[in-house]
């Protein structure tokens, strides 16, 4: 099964933040040379709940695909690019995922290879990625606060963050829910969130969209001082932490 990893890094001093910002361009070559890596995306993040166009200069992310989880963990402990990020970051969290379903494209390709057998009975992660049409960005951000507020206020969300390749035009939302029914109930519920989603759809505000669901297999590291409390699918991880 394909492995997908989302690695989050929090940087403290200004010098570390400037280094991380520079890596948005400089680290591309190093990532492409990591053994076993497939698609790799370098992302920044937003302030507040994360789903905003105002960048959070302290938090950056690397999203990557791999042939399996063990290959991913070998890279995290052995590849220089991941070692450099970890050495400069004050906090790091990596979430290991297996795609359950995926539709749409990211940069013209479909990066996730879904496996119907991976559909979990427990927690499920949801990822949405969209390229906002430049001429309609203001219309999109008019509705976004309603979506952000709804996600942030929902007590069922186990973990959430907003990241993106470009603050105004390329947004990614990532959240973990207790189960598929809870996530579906939130998506279908009437209210500000549903109204905002309908407005986005009817206004054709996106030039490209991707929606993916994942089984959560492992979480390593901490975020905001603790490891997210998510019941995990029992998947054997052969490479021990070093």
Features:
242 residues; alpha+beta; Alpha-Beta Plaits; 8-stranded antiparallel β-barrel; 6 helices; 31% helix; 32% strand; disordered C terminus
The number of helical runs is 6
CATH topology: Alpha-Beta Plaits
Bulk shape: globular
CATH domain class: Alpha Beta
Describe this protein's structure.
By secondary structure, this protein is an alpha+beta fold. It has one domain (3-221): Alpha-Beta Plaits (2-Layer Sandwich). It is built from six helices and eight strands; from the N terminus they run E-H-E-E-H-H-E-E-H-E-E-H-H-E. Strands 1-3-2-6-7-5-8-4 form an eight-stranded antiparallel barrel, surrounded by four helices. The protein is globular, with a radius of gyration of 17 Å. Mean pLDDT is 81; it is low at 238-242.
Short note summarizing the structure:
The protein contains six helices and eight strands.
Describe the protein's topology.
Layout: E1 3-10, H1 14-32, E2 40-45, E3 59-66, H2 69-78, H3 80-88, E4 91-104, E5 124-132, H4 137-153, E6 159-166, E7 170-177, H5 180-188, H6 192-202, E8 206-221
Antiparallel strand pairs: 1-3, 1-4, 2-3, 2-6, 4-8, 5-7, 5-8, 6-7
Helix pairs in contact: 1-3, 2-3, 4-6
């Amino acid at each position: 099964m394909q492995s997908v990893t989302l690695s989050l890094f929090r940087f403290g001093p200004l010098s570390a933040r400037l280094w991380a910002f520079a890596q948005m361009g400089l680290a591309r070559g190093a990532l492409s040379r990591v053994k076993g890596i497939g698609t790799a995306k370098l992302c920044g993040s937003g302030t507040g709940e994360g789903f905003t166009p105002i960048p959070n200069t302290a938090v950056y992310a690397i999203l990557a695909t791999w042939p399996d989880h063990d290959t991913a963990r070998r890279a995290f402990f052995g590849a220089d690019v991941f070692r450099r990020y970890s050495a400069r970051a004050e906090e790091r969290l990596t979430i290991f995922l297996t795609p359950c379903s995926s539709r749409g494209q990211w940069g013209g390709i479909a990066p996730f290879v879904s496996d119907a057998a991976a559909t979990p009975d427990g927690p499920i992660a949801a990822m949405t990625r969209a390229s906002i049409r430049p001429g309609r960005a203001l219309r999109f951000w008019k509705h976004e606060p309603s979506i952000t507020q709804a996600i942030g206020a929902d007590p069922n969300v186990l973990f959430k963050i907003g990241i993106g390749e470009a603050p105004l035009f390329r947004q990614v939302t990532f959240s973990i829910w207790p189960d598929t029914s809870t996530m579906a109930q939130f998506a279908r519920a009437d209210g500000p969130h549903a109204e905002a989603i309908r407005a986005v759809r009817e206004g054709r505000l996106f030039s490209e969209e991707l929606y993916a669901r994942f089984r959560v297999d492992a979480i390593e590291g901490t975020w905001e001082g603790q490891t997210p409390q998510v019941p995990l699918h029992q998947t054997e991880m052969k490479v021990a932490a070093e």
